[in-house]
Specification:
The complex is a heterodimer of chains A (about 400) and B (about 425). Chain A contains eleven helices and eleven strands. Chain A is an alpha/beta fold and about 400 residues long. In chain A, the strands form two sheets. In chain A, strands 3-2-4-7-1-8-11-10-9 form a nine-stranded mixed beta sheet. In chain A, strands 5-6 form a two-stranded antiparallel ribbon. The radius of gyration of chain A is 19 Å and the shape is globular. Chain B has a five-stranded mixed beta sheet with strand order 5-11-10-8-9, sandwiched between helices. A five-stranded antiparallel beta sheet of chain B has the order 17-16-15-18-19. In chain B, strands 2-1-3-4 form a four-stranded mixed beta sheet, with helices on both faces. In chain B, helix 8 crosses helix 9. Chain B is globular, with a radius of gyration of 22 Å. Chain B starts with 7 loop residues before the first helix and ends in a 9-residue tail after the last strand. The chains are: A alpha/beta (about 400), B alpha+beta (about 425).
Chain lengths: ~400, ~425
């Protein structure tokens, strides 16, 4: 594969939460200001020659018409080349991948990738929950978001003896990490008992097994490795990426204890980066539900299939564990503003690689961080990006 | 009452399904379908075609939907019998069903029940229809106008008893000319008129007594449901129906046990008592407050033109190359397993085992929690995801289940039907 090496020279986000006081445009501006301020040697926005906007659903805040032009105007760059990317829950991570390809191909020099999502302007009933009435009028009726993942929990428990305590340990860890992350939606610790006693949402998942609905925005600036030194002396490079798909309906799955799209996407990313799972120092993975993180760490090759639950309970994925997972608090604690999520995860990887993660800092032995999303109908779309400090 | 996701159509399907099972026939053997109901689910719309589709009958199937009053059931029976006698139809399914929506506060609320009864008519069989008499008078009794949703009583109870029901049906019963040992299925709108009429006619055995006691007045279904008990043993019988001033009595000569009749008594005992609030919910007269989320696919969408037959008929596309069943066919132009694009359309098995499941507790109106969603490995190797028909407490991975027809929702006034999953361990329950 012949491509120009890509460097990340800036990354930033806004405090995640229920941002009732901010418009979509104001959140975009906040993320843009954050990413500009993050560039070590200062950054002139006029250098941006293309932008990719990650917004999964304009419909969630009442506007179908989010195109490529909304964000440029909001951030004072009306006129620049800008494209909106949508690819389900990996929308943000795929927009990053597309941005990287624009730089790698040599077509664009300095690219802004910005994810913005308004999740809470509408009530839950009229927002994400309304998806229960979407899709096929019979075969998917009632399929709200937890239904995409809870069947895997039922089956994982059945086949491997995974317990609800093991699932809960994921939420406990991620809330702990989130309390150390000033940008996280939730800033509180929880216990396993809290999870087990929380209200049932979609059996076998309870409320604290589920990520919140969060407004948020995050942005990244990428350029060619050749030009990185104009902006920073501590560049982070894009080592590899992969995207993969799987069948869109739950009844078509070849397995109910794993998400093959994740495995395929990661294999492509590992191959491109020429790296093995055991060389990854930390990972930000898609934990929309506790079971999802357990599936992820198995599908990404960090733990053996079926051992994700016990590995989580025994602390292998904690900040001081063998493979720290979701040091930012993950979707469970930091939040899941869909289009912004992947870019916010990449921001955490960028901080960890540069040693800027403060109390959350983990040891970066090999200089590799992995970012992952999976979602869409049937959880059939996955994107994996791998960043590195190795030149 | 039946469950909130059942109605005259789903009940009719269930009765026909049991008749086909008892007769050992497949849908391909049936060339006529007559359906009598006072409550077709589409007042003006594709009620009959939906029933034919869920029964997987051929598109050239003969028959009719008969409606207008509770007399519709016996009108359907006579029309089907005529078609068979004329040699136009070889095997006719006759189904009668009703699920009344009574006006709140009317006596119909407690007097009415939901049920379906079906029989298979052929040129010869263990029971035959004989001498028939019918009387008609233009009177107003139980009533629902063209713009009314609920049924009401437009008459004085004693006036109806003394001037309409007893004189009309006593004359009719005597004109039927039945032998003294005949078993009778008599219409009984209020629970007292039936036995009174029976005494006037010196009826020895009231075969409809048990179904009336268990279910109440099941309207157009009452006559066939009431005669079922008599069809199990040889001897004479009379089935009588009344509705809106019309009454008909048909002599039935039972020469041997009619297959399936023995099951009816067991089915009648499956019900349980329900509170008034449960009844109101089951009849959808008490619903959750708040705005309902619209279905993303409106009922008028072309998607239903493409998808109705495969969804209602529970069809799959079996790959000619590798045998994998793709479901539903219209969204799978390419095999999910091997990528080839030639298929045979197949009827999916209606039994299977649970691959995995969830129970959804968090949905906006009109969804009602708890709502199980089940991925089922069907016995023919296909896999399908459907809603559960129960609250899901008996669902277990690997557990045996069956697929039954239910109403998924009423969207913008249009009922939407599909198959749901029921645990085989639980009781079969549509009753009382």
């Amino acid at each position: 594969m012949s491509w120009n090496k890509v460097a990340v020279v800036g990354a930033g986000l806004i405090k995640m939460g229920e941002l009732f006081d901010q418009s979509y445009e104001q959140m975009a501006k906040g993320a843009f200001d954050s990413v500009v301020a993050s560039v070590d040697k200062g950054f002139d926005p006029a250098l941006i020659d293309a932008a990719f906007v990650a917004t999964q659903r304009g419909t969630l805040w009442g506007q179908e018409g989010i195109g490529g032009n909304t964000v440029p105007t909001a951030i004072g760059l009306s006129g620049i080349a800008c494209t909106r990317i949508e690819n389900a829950c990996p929308t943000g991570s795929d927009a990053f991948r597309v941005g990287c390809m624009a730089v790698a191909s040599g077509v664009h020099d300095v690219v802004l990738v910005i994810g913005v999502e308004k999740m809470r302007d509408k009530s839950s009933e009229e927002g994400l929950l309304a998806r229960a009435a979407a899709g096929h009028p019979v075969y998917t009726r009632g399929e709200s978001a937890p239904v995409l993942f809870a069947p895997f929990a039922t089956r994982h428990m059945h086949e491997f003896g995974t317990t609800h305590e093991m699932l809960a340990s994921v939420a406990v860890k991620n809330h702990h990490n989130g309390k150390l992350d000033p940008y996280a939606h939730f800033q509180n610790e929880i216990t396993i008992e809290d999870v087990l006693k929380s209200a049932p949402v979609c059996h076998p998942l309870n409320l604290l097994d589920c990520c919140p609905q969060t407004d948020g925005a995050a942005a990244i600036i990428i350029t060619s490795a050749e030009r990185a030194s104009e902006f920073t002396d501590k560049p982070v490079f894009v080592a590899g990426f992969g995207v993969a798909t799987d069948t869109p309906y739950l009844h078509e799955k070849t397995t109910y204890v794993g998400l093959p799209a994740t495995t395929l996407a990661s294999e492509r990313a590992y191959k491109m980066a020429d790296v093995a799972p055991d060389q990854i120092d930390m990972a930000e993975v898609h934990d929309c539900f506790t079971i999802t993180e357990i599936l992820d760490i198995e599908d990404l090759g960090f733990v053996e299939k079926g051992k994700g639950g016990i590995a989580s309970l025994e602390g292998e994925t904690a900040l001081d564990g063998r493979i720290p997972i979701n040091t930012s608090g993950g979707l469970l604690a930091k939040g899941h503003p869909i289009g912004a999520t992947g870019i916010a995860q990449l921001t955490e990887c960028w901080w960890q690689l540069r040693g800027d993660a403060a109390e959350r800092q983990v040891e970066m032995r090999n200089g590799f961080a992995l970012q992952h999303n999976v979602g869409g109908r049937g959880s059939g779309v996955s994107v994996v990006n791998i960043l590195t400090t190795n030149a | 009452v039946c469950a909130s996701d059942e109605d005259a159509l789903t009940l009719a399907w269930a009765a026909c399904d049991r008749v086909l099972d008892a007769a050992g026939l497949s849908p391909d053997d049936i060339d006529g379908l007559w359906w009598g109901t006072s409550r077709p689910p589409f007042a003006e719309g594709p009620s009959w075609t939906h029933l034919a589709a869920v029964l997987r009958l051929g598109h050239g199937t003969d028959g009719a939907l008969v409606s207008g009053s509770t007399h519709a059931g016996i009108e359907a029976l006579r029309a089907a019998a005529d078609a068979v006698a004329a040699g136009r139809v070889q095997r006719a399914l006759v189904v009668t069903s009703d699920s009344l929506l009574p006006g709140t506060g009317t006596g119909l609320e407690t007097a009415s029940g939901a049920a379906a009864g079906a029989v298979l008519l052929t040129a010869d069989g263990p029971a035959s229809l004989g001498h028939t008499v019918t009387h008609s008078v233009p009177v107003l009794d139980r009533y629902r106008g063209d713009r009314e949703e609920t049924t009401r009583e437009a008459y004085d109870g004693r006036l109806f008893r003394e001037e309409v029901y007893l004189p009309l049906l006593t004359d009719l019963g005597r004109a039927a000319g039945a032998s003294d040992d005949a078993r009778w299925s008599l219409p009984d709108p209020d629970g007292r008129l039936g036995p009174t009429l029976g005494r006037k006619l010196a009826v020895g055995t009231l075969s409809s007594a048990e179904s009336r006691a268990e279910l109440g007045d099941t309207g157009a279904a009452a006559a066939l449901v009431g005669i079922a008990a008599a069809l199990g043993t040889a001897g004479p019988a009379v089935v009588m129906a009344y509705g809106a001033g019309r009454a008909t009595a048909i002599n039935v000569d039972v020469t041997g046990p009619v297959p399936g009749a023995e099951r009816v008594a067991a089915d009648l005992s499956q019900g349980r008592e329900a509170s008034y609030a449960e009844v109101l919910r089951a009849r959808r007269q008490l619903t959750a407050a708040g705005e309902s989320v619209e279905m993303a696919v409106p009922p008028g969408s072309a998607m239903f033109i493409r998808g109705n037959v495969e969804t209602l008929g529970l069809l799959g596309a079996r790959c000619v190359e590798c045998g994998t069943v793709n479901t539903p066919p219209s969204i799978h132009p390419t095999c999910i397993h091997c990528g080839h694009d030639k298929f045979d359309i197949v009827r999916l098995a209606r039994r299977g085992t649970v691959q995995t499941f969830v129970i959804n507790h968090t949905m906006p109106a009109p969804f009602e929690a708890p709502l199980p969603l089940v991925v089922v490995d069907l016995d023919d190797g296909a896999c399908i995801q459907l809603q559960g028909a129960t609250t899901g407490e008996n669902l277990a991975i690997g557990g045996p289940v069956e697929l039954i027809l239910r109403r998924y929702t009423v969207e913008r006034g249009v009922p939407i039907y599909g198959w749901k999953v029921r645990e085989l361990a639980t009781s079969e329950g549509t009753a009382s």
